[in-house]
Every structure is written in structure tokens, then in C-alpha cells.
Amino acid sequence: MLDKISKSTELKPWRGNIPIYHRYTLGVAGERFFKALRDHKQILASACPNCRQRFIPPKIYCEACFEETRDWSTVEGPGYIKTFTVLHRSLEEEPLERPVVVALIAWSGVRGGLLHRLGEVDPSGVKTGLEVEPQWAEVRTGSMDDIQFFRPPLNS
Amino acid sequence: MRRALETPKELAFEAAKAALDDAGLTINDIDSVVAVTAPDAFDGVHMNTEYFADGAGAKGKPYMRSYVGGGSGVFGVINGWYHVASGHFDTCLVVAEEKMSSALPHPQGAFNAIYDQFLERPLGVNLLWIFALEMNRYMHTHQVPMETFARVAQKNKRNGMDHPSSQSGISGDFTIQQIMDSEVMAWPVQRLMVSPISDGAGAMVLASEEFVRKRGLSPVWIEGVGWNLDTSYWTDRDLYYPRYVEKAARMAYDMAGVTDPRRDIHVVEPYDPFAYKELHHLEGLQLADKGQAPRLVEEGFWDRDTEVGIPSTPSGGLMGVGNPIAAAGMMKVTEIFWQLQGRAGKRQVKREVRRGLAQAWGDLMQVGTVVILGK
Ligand SMILES: [Zn+2]
């Protein structure tokens, strides 16, 4: 029992996977959110009728009050960087050609936020609290890539 | 797939909110949350119950997932019961969810991977194969004609016409001939004798006696719970008889003080993903002798309007309402709840009911889970 076989490649395998893939539906809130991105270049929030809290991404319910959300609105103005990281390796641990900055972007007065890439910034210049806006993609399909990346406002 | 749009979170919220509203409670009355699904591969979200826990009202609360595959819908209620019965919590919200329409090309792909990697998976095995083999063994042992299974499917599909959550196209007034003529999928399993692919959620609020009294609620009581696991090797099981269901049932009967189930159980919701499974499970539950459940079908013993028998699957079950796996088990418990409260509407059974039983089946198809409810 204590013999150690360290090279699994020398053992006879049967290769397999779970033969399944998925088609995820966006859901009630997701349909509205992604349609607004695609058709109107708008980021939608939903709000709880009870505690008035607004949510990004929007949900059909407030998880605190357990009430259905009713009021939907577009977020105004730029968001800000709540936290960020600089990636140097891919998911498979391959070195990246150039570092990628990803950030949690939040809007004041709104709970939650969006995870996205930052663009048109020098990674060494990114700071928590920095204001950012979406760079909209020319061709939008109703996905997170409808925003190419977030970047500092052009007029600042 | 009436609910194909909603995400798992949204399905969970709708069910959890409906259960709270029905009980006249809010999320602030809930001390703990239990969430259940069958394998994550269906929804395609790893750690699915953790993912939708916010929709199940679990934010800021002690939360637990319990899991026995397809048996989880009933097992979630058992897990919720010991949250409360332990004295640790006054209330527990139990939420069951499943979204199977996401899984392509077919959810059976996930079932392929529950079988042995070397001996069985290379053959492309799935649940339909295995349960066609089991059904054949049951038919052979007791010499059951196909018409009998068609009658079970007909009963459940008719009953399902009166269920508000029935999936479109599933329930209906089918003739025996229509059912007998439906496509053979894996002989002897035919299209109209097997449950569909479904999306759904179900929820239930459990509370302590003290909480119920304090709040002046009109409850149904959990009188017994039981669960049991057979061998993991399907090849080594009896096949013609679900021993694991018998053991789970006997555990629940002992706890509930039920000494004669055929006298003391007045309505039953056995797990019915296949028509033969309803009969198989009724025998495991000791509600009929081995091989006798099919004979009783002919007498109308299991019909909703029986006056001398035990109405079985008045909800319509998995064949008449749909089979969002864990949510389907929960749907069976909620049906017994409504039957005992006299609130099942058109589905209300004719005979007087004071005690009912819901059962589910799952894991590697060797687990039985049983809950007995009483007035
Ligand atoms: Zn709220």
C-alpha cells in the first residue's frame, strides 16, 4: 500500500469527461440588463421598494428585505474603482503578453458593482477610487463584452 | 418548460417568497435556511445552492446544503426538520431548485457520469438504460402487463391537469392507447411513461411547536422522517424491489408510531419519474405487497377519488407536473401539506385524510427519502 507511483502517465487510463455543455438563460433581470447595454449603452440598476437600496447588477429581489424590486433606473455619472489587481499569468499559468488590469467598479449609492478590464491606463497609475467610464463596443450583442473596458473619463 | 427564462436564483426566490407569504411570515422570521438540488451539472453552476442561496433568503443566516441527488427534495425537509427539532432554531426555510433545460445536448449526459468509468460509461450508459433494465426485471418478476404502467401514467397526467405549476404539454387526458403507442425510448420505457426535462423550484417553512403557538399558525406536523442507502453497485441491487425505500419507510413509520401503514397512511406521493417507479416505490413503502401494486391499479385503489384505497400522486407527480428533480421531491411534500390542510382545490382527494407520506429517490438511484406529515 505504501509503494508510491508518481508517474500517472505510465498507468493505463480511460479518458473521459462529463458529456454535457450549457446554455444559460439570462433570467428576468438579466434580460433587461443586457438589452439596455446592447440597445441603449446604459447600465441598469434595480431598487428595493422597502429599503430603497439600488443594486448593480440588477436583481428581481432585495436579498435583505426579500421583496421584489420594482424601480429600475440607469446609473448616472462615472463609476469608481473599489479594488483592482494586475494579472501577469493566464488561467493556464502562461505568461501574458502584457499585464491586464481588472477592477471592481462601483457607483456611489448603489450596492454591488461590475467586474471588468481597465483600458487606456498605465497599470502603475491605477489607484483605488479612480473614476472610470465604460468604453462601449461598436458591435454590441448583449454581453459583458458590449463594454470593451472601463477607462478614466475622456474629459478629465 | 414554463420557467425556462428564470435563473436558478430567480426560481428559488419565487418559491421561497411564495412559501413565506403563504405562512404569513417574512424573511426576518426565518432563523436558518436549507437549500437542495440534484447534481450541479444540470444547472451548470458549480456549487449551485451556494450560488442561489441569496434567492433562497440565506443572506446573513445559518445556511446548509444537503444532498442526496434526486432524493434531495424530500431530504431537504428532513434536514430542515432536524434544524428545528434539535432545538437550535425556531424556524427553517427549505428551498429546492433545479434548472435542467440549461444542460445540453441532454441532461442524461450528466447521468452518464454517475456510472462506473471503466465498466459502464464507455458503453454510453444513461438512466433510461438502467431503469429500462430495472423495469424489465420488475415486469418479469411479477408478470405485469404494459397496460398497467400506461394506467399509472394516465392517472398522473390527468391529476397534473389541476396543478397550477404543471409544465405545458405534460399533463392531459391521454388514452391508454395513446400512451401505449408513444415512442419507445429504451424498451420497455416509453415517452409517455417517463417524466420530462423541467425547470422549477419549491419551498417550505418549518417551525417549532412553540413558534407555531406564539404566532397562531395552523400547521401540518412532521410526524416521521426516514432515509436509507442501498449498495452503490446497481448490479448488486434487487432491482425488482427497492429495499432502500422499505428501510427508509420503516424508519419513518417507527418514528411516527405507524404500525399499519395501509390503515394509517391516507394519501401518498411516491416518486414517479417512470410509471413503473410509482408501483415499485408503493411496494417499498409497504402500501402493497410485493407484486400487488399493479393489481391494485386495476381496482382504482390509487386513484384520487378512491373511497377505500390510498390515493397516490394526487398532485400529478413528475409525469403530470414535471420533474425539476429536487424541486419535484419538494413538490411532493407540499402536495401532502395541501391535502392535509384541505387546500388542494380540484386535486383534493375524496377520502378523509389525517396523515400522508411523501417519498423521493435518488443519489446513484439507491437512496430512499421519506417524510410523514400529519394533522
Ligand atoms: Zn430591501
Describe the structure.
- Chain A starts with 20 loop residues before the first strand and ends in a 5-residue tail after the last strand.
- In chain A, 22% of the residues are buried.
- In chain A, 9% of the residues lie in helices and 37% in strands.
- Chain A is extended.
- Chain A has one helix at 27-40; strands at 21-22, 44-47, 54-56, 61-62, 67-68, 71-74, 79-89, 95-106, 110-112, 114-117, 131-136, 147-151.
- In chain A, the strands form three sheets. In chain A, strands 10-8-7-11-12 form a five-stranded antiparallel β-sheet, with no helix packed on it. Chain A has a four-stranded mixed β-sheet with strand order 6-2-3-9.
- Chain A is built from one helix and twelve strands; from the N terminus they run βαβββββββββββ.
- Chain A is mostly beta strands and 156 residues long.
- Chain B has a single domain (8-105, 196-374), classed as Thiolase/Chalcone synthase (Peroxisomal Thiolase, Chain A, domain 1), CATH 3.40.47.
- Chain B has 15 helices and eleven strands.
- Chain A binds chain B through residues 14, 16, 18-31, 59-61, 63-66, 68, and chain B through 4-7, 9-10, 13, 16-17, 20, 26-27, 41, 44, 54-55, 57, 59-60, 101-107, 109-110, 112-113, 117-118, 121-122.
- The site of zinc ion has 8 residues of chain A, from loops.
